[in-house]
Amino acid sequence: MAGGNGELKLVGEWASPFVTRVKLLLHIKGLSYEYVEEDLRNKSELLLSSNPVHKSVPVLIHDGKPICESQIILQYIDEVYASTGPSLLPADPYERAVARFWTAYIDDKIATPWDRLFRAKTDEERAEAMKQLFTAVEALEGGFKESSKGKDFFGGDSVGYLDIIVGSLVSWVKATSVLAGAELINAAKMPLLAAWMERFCELDAAKAILQDVDALVEHGRMLMAKNAARASK
User: Fold this and answer.
1) Of 7, 39, 171, 222, which one's alpha carbon is 20 to 30 angstroms from that of 14?
2) What is the dihedral of CA 144, 197, 203, 11, to 10 degrees?
3) Over the chain (233 residues), what is each successive 10-residue block's mean pLDDT?
4) Helix (H, G, I), strand (E, B) or coil at 156
5) How many CA atoms lie within 13 A of 74 on its CB side?
6) Are 161 and 72 in contact (CB under 8 A)?
7) Order of strands across the sheet with 59-62?
């Protein structure tokens, strides 16, 4: 991995897709970094001092200076290391706006019900979150068509900003499909997105960084069981 341009340290948590976003880009850029696994049930002084506002991961520390929130971190890396590896955001302002629109959509319309799915205290709450999640994901088929313009990736011929945003969710897509008993990205309904997911999983970065699906399934079951137990008290 490439060095230079200062020391990089990433504070994260293995299951977080937001942390996965940053790991993917660092790998694609070929950047060396120290990874610090955080216990979010017992937050470290490093995390609390680096991100005192949200107290959440990921945090990228560059030469002692913390950068918080995954979208901001991705764009920071792309700007600081512009000459290292491929550029992330499109050069065209309109295409950049489209990429940012779909990123906001994912973080609002997909990540929110996904989080509720695992935090639900009743079967009814879980079923409603699942319904919202499946509906929201279907819209990404149109997002891929608009962004890719008939090519292999959201970024066109090569991996771009949206590929990393959506790609960071791939292991959770597979784990949630197991937990739900239904394919979250259904090839019959979303053929473009399903084909993209297969291509993305063949990338060296994906093979190196994406979480083990079985481990996420167990993690998801643990989260659902914990929240169900709280509801029964």
Assistant:
1) 7
2) 90
3) 74 98 97 97 98 98 98 97 90 95 97 93 92 96 96 96 98 96 95 98 98 98 88 70
4) strand
5) 25
6) no
7) 34-37, 8-12, 59-62, 65-68
